[in-house]
Amino acid sequence: MQPKVLVIVGPTAVGKTALSLSLAEKYQGEIISGDSMQVYRQLDIGTAKVTPAERGTIPHFLIDIREVTESYSSFDFKQLATQKIHEITARGHLPIIVGGTGMYIASLLKNFNLGGDKDDRERQQIRQALEIELDQIGSQQLWKRLNHIDPDAAAKIPVQNSRRTIRALEVIQQTGQLFSAQPLLDPEFDATIIGLQTQRERLYQRINQRVVQMIDTGLIDEAAWLFRHVSTESQSAKGIGYREFPPYLAGEQSLAQTIEQIQLDSRHYAKRQLTYFRHQLPTTWYDLLEDPAASQRIEHKLETWLEK
């Protein structure tokens, strides 16, 4: 039998963490982070990382596993998450993946090849060469190169997201196939996907409030610490909630402008998250903010699935 995996997805600030903790408590779950930024140690506030107090006795994995100077990719996530799923299943518990990084979760559930059959040393060499090229020609020119080779892949990657551009080019070089046409292997897991959403105005209001709360609890100091350790081209520095700070830290932008930019970027990201999950993953959607009783329907769905 395929291991069962519960996946909770949705945009930022919609309540994924609270639901995951509740369901983990009820169904003997252990939580695997499906977030590309919560892997970084010391980046707690801007990533909305679940706190040790919130975690309680529920095990959490793929959090605080990288230094801010290190990289982390969908290949890394797929490899580590697969290992954790099998370990959790062997303990008789339910693996619960929680996060908003769509490409990571899709690569796991759809079992993308991602060049994983190649030697890891070769993979690192290709990535390092691409990172050197990025430093030499910049993110826009590197994206243009991807767009020339694989326009379908480039269309889904923002020009400024050099990490994803590098990943696409890396896979193309490793496999000799377009990133947009990566072969799918047979799914390895029996997954059910719960999606959380709410009315756009309410979601955007929650996002704006969360950013203000992050500022109040120390995000400025966290961002200042980050940029003392890495450059603006580092993967960890490109996360929303951090990448907006260099102009402020350099005295070129006011705090009010910085907050507004973080809020804007966060709202745009939430919209992209919803679009990705709706089109790429077979998700059942619920609005727990407008309809708290939907939690009962979620539990009924899970109990029926777990009994199969």
TrEMBL record:
> Which segments carry the region annotation Interaction with substrate tRNA?
35-38
**Which GO terms of type biological process are on file?**
tRNA modification
SUPFAM superfamilies hit by this protein = P-loop containing nucleoside triphosphate hydrolases
GO molecular function list:
ATP binding; tRNA dimethylallyltransferase activity
State the source organism's domain of life: Bacteria
Q: Which InterPro entries match?
A: Dimethylallyltransferase (IPR039657), IPT (IPR018022), P-loop_NTPase (IPR027417)
Sequence positions that bind ATP: 10-17
The entry's substrate-binding residues are: 12-17
Write out the entry's keywords from A to Z. Answer: ATP-binding, Magnesium, Nucleotide-binding, Transferase, tRNA processing
> What cofactor(s) does the depicted protein rely on?
Mg(2+)
Instruction: Note the site residues: Interaction with substrate tRNA.
Output: 101, 127
> What are its E.C. numbers?
2.5.1.75
| Entry keyword Glycosyltransferase | no
Q: Does the keyword Transit peptide apply?
A: no
Annotated TM spans: none
Quaternary state and partners of this protein? Answer: Monomer.
Family to which the UniProt record says this protein belongs: Belongs to the IPP transferase family.
Q: What is this protein called?
A: tRNA dimethylallyltransferase
- Native source species: Lapidilactobacillus concavus DSM 17758
